[in-house]
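FW: tagging you since you asked about this chain on Friday. Here's the raw sequence from the shared folder, copied in full. Didn't touch anything.
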Amino acid sequence: MKIVTIFGSPRKKGNSVTLTEAFLYEAEQRGAKVSRHHIGAQKVFGCICCEACKREHTSCVLQDDLTPILHETFNADTVVIATPLYFLDMPAPCKAFIDRWYSFFNPEFYCRPDPSRLAPGKNIVFVVSQGAQENQFNDFVQRYAMIFSMFGFKAPWLIRGADLGGPDAASKRPDLLERARYVGQMVMDGEPSDSVIKPYG
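HL: got it, structure written out here
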C-alpha cells in the first residue's frame, strides 16, 4: 500500500505529528510504503482558479513544492492529512494543498457522474489536534469529510486529539496513541471506517 502523508503543522514535533507517526508506525510494520511531507515551511501556492486544469491540462499547472505531492496523492492508495486546528481551520499551507485538489476535478464536474479524476475508493485518514474540547469545532471535521467524499474517497478514518494543552500533550495520552495505532492496523487490513461524522450543513 502506498501512503502519502501531509503534515500541515508548522511544528515538526507537534501533536498532530505525534499521532500520525503512531499510525504510520503500524502501517509500515505491515508493509506500507510511506512518504512524508511537512508542508508548513515549504513554498506552496493556493489555487488561482486559472482553469488550465479544465481546459488544456489534466493536472495543476502551478509549479511549487506541492507539485510532486499532488502527483503522489493522485497515485496513492491512502492519503493522510495531519493538521492542528488553528483559528477555526487548518494552517494556510495545508488549506492550500486542499484547494489545489480542484485540479482533481474533471471538466464540468458539477454535472457529470464521474466528477473526480482520482480513482474511487481511496482511503483517507484525517488526523486533527486541537486545544479546545472535543465538542467544539465539529463543523471543521464535517466540512472536510464532505470535501473528501466529493473526490470519491472512502468514509474517512478520524484520529482526533482534543483538549491538548501543549505541543507535546499527545505523547502523554495513551488513549490517543492507541487510537492512532488501531487505525493503522484497520486501514492496512482494509476495514471500513468506524468514524461517525455527521453530515455537514
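FW: The helical segments are 15-29, 67-75, 92-99, 138-150, 174-188.
HL: agreed, and The first helix runs from residue 15 to 29.
FW: great, closing this out.
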